[in-house]
Amino acid sequence: MTLSKYILIILVQIIAVPVAIFSFKLIEIRFFASAVASMYFILSTSLVLAICFKFQPRVTRSPVFWSSWGFLILFALPIFLGRMIYPPNIPFSEISILGVPGSVMHSASSYFFSFMVLMTGLEMVLLFLNKGTKKALEESSEG
Questions:
Q1: pLDDT value at position 69?
Q2: Mind giving me the DSSP string for 73-98?
Q3: Mean pLDDT for all residues in the chain
């Protein structure tokens, strides 16, 4: 995958934070604010997976690919579905998602999301360093 694809992925991931914050600041009904924030997490992670499917060889799927799958399956979808199946008047802290309290699930998802962004950053740095090493090797073999 190219550096520009990683930059796109990390931007999509980082934008999730202000989307979540502003959805709760601008949308008065918390149920709808959570739906907007959750949908962004689901759609943005799906976009990351689509980019990985298109631009990474099947055999060598990367930590970005696997951490995105993990986030989507373990956190983004269950949190969204958990919020949607409970009546809107029940606070998120009082709902249970797959037997886990909503607040615990949200906290764990924040850590996993940070891990996912870290994996993207790490892959970007490794790609950049690898390209720099290749370029240096090509220049030294020419001279």
A1: 94
A2: IIIIHHHHHHHHHS-TTS-GGG-EET
A3: 88
